[in-house]
Design a protein that fits this description.
It is a single chain. The chain is globular, with a radius of gyration of 20 Å. The strands form five sheets. Strands 2, 3, 5, 6, 7, 9, 10, 11, 12, 13 and 14 form an eleven-stranded antiparallel beta sheet that branches. Strands 16-25-24-19-22 form a five-stranded antiparallel beta sheet, with helices on one face. It has a four-stranded antiparallel beta sheet with strand order 1-15-4-8, with no helix packed on it. By secondary structure, it is mainly β. It has two helices and 25 strands. It has two domains: 137 residues, Immunoglobulin-like, CATH 2.60.40.10; 160 residues, Sandwich (Jelly Rolls).
Length: 306
């Protein structure tokens, strides 16, 4: 957990910026990769309100490099596997797995419809699904509770663009980051000299809730990490002797963490339930301390949402 010093710096900083939000649903943490020549996995839920999808990204723990996602809007929940019914996506896209695929114009999902998504990294030869916890798993849409169920197609969507039989199922939720207008998001980007700052998919930054990211130190010994917070990302980043600087000046918060274990350390912040913070954008970066030097990580942006 982040300390009171970090919280006191975060809250006034967040209040200074506001704007449109394009941000993600909470999904479980990664547990394993499921590889198959022809089975694509995802999740579904019934929409509690109208919402707009603005982007998608499939986590690529397999380092496949390419992603594909199909979104379906169904009037009734798909039947439980091994039963199925024909599926035709309302949106399909492919691209680099390192990028968020823009859904433009934003895709409206009407209240009461079943939002169903499958996504994987890979190719027409094989697909990799990013598994999380077993369904059911609790998430939320614009502050409204939803229950994620497992959603599947027994096909490779790189081959058929998602036009295939679809089913609900039991077992792990397969993770697809779905960005929703008005939600909180965390996006990692850019090069690093050492270590990394990573998103925490179960805890996107939303008002009145806990938001979280992870700092990993990379190879070698370290003496902790210095956390940097800014209201602006440097575009392009500034090359320094310590690595690429992504966080712009002025820096609003500095926090020394203890020695960072190889598995990383979670930094969590409880965001105030203040609607004026919706749309605020914060840039985070970490500097891994290796006396007498520092090594900068990549950057991470938070967009505060509901």
């Amino acid at each position: 957990m982040v300390g009171d010093t970090m919280r006191s710096a975060l809250i006034p900083a967040m209040a200074l910026l506001a704007g449109p939000t394009f941000a993600q649903l909470a999904t479980p943490d990664f547990t394993s990769t499921f590889k198959s020549p022809s089975l694509t996995r995802g999740y579904l839920f019934q929409a509690p309100v109208d919402f707009f999808v603005t982007g998608v990204q499939v986590p690529d723990e397999a380092n496949a490099g390419t992603q594909a996602t199909a979104i379906y809007a169904e009037s009734a929940k798909p039947p439980m596997f091994q039963a199925n019914r024909p599926g035709k996506p309302v949106w399909f896209g492919t691209g680099k797995s390192s990028e968020v695929l823009a859904v433009w114009p934003p895709l409206r999902i009407a209240k009461g419809n079943w939002f169903c998504v499958v996504g994987a990294t890979g190719s027409t030869s094989s697909v990799h699904s990013s598994y999380g916890a077993n369904a059911p798993w609790t998430s939320s849409v614009l502050g409204n509770k939803v229950i994620l169920g497992r959603f599947i197609t027994q096909t490779n969507i790189f081959r058929n663009k998602g036009v295939a039989p679809i089913s609900s199922s039991t077992g792990p939720v397969s993770r697809v980051r779905v960005f929703v207008q008005g939600h909180g998001s965390a996006t990692a980007y850019g090069p690093a000299k050492r270590g990394s700052i990573l998103t925490s998919d179960p805890f996107p930054p939303s008002i009145g809730k806990n938001a979280q990211f992870k700092v990993k130190p990379g190879a070698g010994t370290n003496h902790g990490a210095l956390l940097l917070l800014s209201l602006a990302r440097l575009r392009p980043f500034l090359p320094t002797q310590y690595g690429p600087l992504h966080a712009g000046l002025p820096l609003f918060a500095l926090l020394f963490t203890p020695v960072v274990p190889a598995i990383g350390i979670d930094i969590q912040v409880q965001l105030p339930n203040n609607p004026s913070l919706v749309g605020a954008v914060l840039t985070h970066q970490a500097a891994i301390i290796e006396f007498p030097n520092l090594s900068l990580t990549n950057g991470l942006d938070w967009t505060i949402g509901r």
